[in-house]
Design a protein that fits this description.
The protein has 207 residues and is of the alpha+beta class. The protein is 17% helix and 39% strand. The chain has one domain. It is globular, with a radius of gyration of 16 Å. It starts with 7 loop residues before the first strand and ends with a strand.
Length: 207
């Protein structure tokens, strides 16, 4: 499934959901081939286990997708590929089909460099109607779940979003201060506000 054109895979997941671990493992499996984001939502926290990785910002993002895709509401696990294709997050064949289609669409190249606590972003172009988003992710995030549907399981996640920062309208050049958190990768992408299609994406390892 290796893609020459960068493809962004978002997984909406929760440690309170018994159906999510297979999707988490699928995302971990393809992390080296694609740009991946594990976005933990908080609406399952009430059933017994509070997901330590969940944030309201990511729940709100999934709700926006639910409106865009005209679905009956958010669910987990859900994968969204390039803001265009959505399906059950543990469905490997659906993922393969989606990335095959997504990789056929050219994207705007993004060039990332890190110097100290500064991230420099240069885009070959800044399309009107697109926003720029920064996410900082962490790999190997583990939890020993003591309550809820996954009670007794040790769950491990890659690409967990630790920081989510909209940067406003797409720009050809911008320098951003990195947050004072531990992260493995910085992911930057351009997303059309109307179609929700991802039109550019890049990732860089953090020192």
């Amino acid at each position: 499934m290796l893609a020459m054109v960068p493809v962004l895979i978002e997984l909406f997941t929760s440690e309170g959901c018994s159906s999510c671990p297979p999707a988490d493992e699928l995302l971990r499996k393809v992390r080296g081939e694609f740009i991946t984001l594990s976005e933990h939502v908080d609406y399952w926290d009430y059933i017994g286990w509070k997901d330590p990785n969940a944030t309201p910002k990511l729940t709100a993002r999934q709700n926006d997708y639910a409106s865009h895709f005209r679905s009956r509401g958010p669910y987990t696990p859900q994968m969204v590929v390039d803001g265009e294709f959505e399906f059950v997050g543990s469905d490997g064949p659906a993922l393969a089909r989606a990335v095959e289609q997504a990789a056929k669409r050219p994207k705007i190249p993004l060039h990332l460099t890190v110097a100290g606590k500064k991230l420099s972003i240069i885009a070959d172009e800044a399309p009107a109607g697109a926003e720029m988003i920064l996410a900082v992710t962490r790999n190997g995030v583990a939890s020993s779940v003591t309550r809820g549907e996954n009670q007794g399981r040790r769950l491990v996640h890659d690409s967990v979003v630790r920081h989510w920062q909209p940067l406003g309208n797409a720009k050809v050049s911008i320098e951003v201060a990195l947050p004072d958190i531990v992260g493995d990768n910085a992911v930057v992408f351009l997303q059309d506000r109307r179609s929700r299609h991802v039109v550019g994406a890049a990732s860089i390892n953090l020192p």
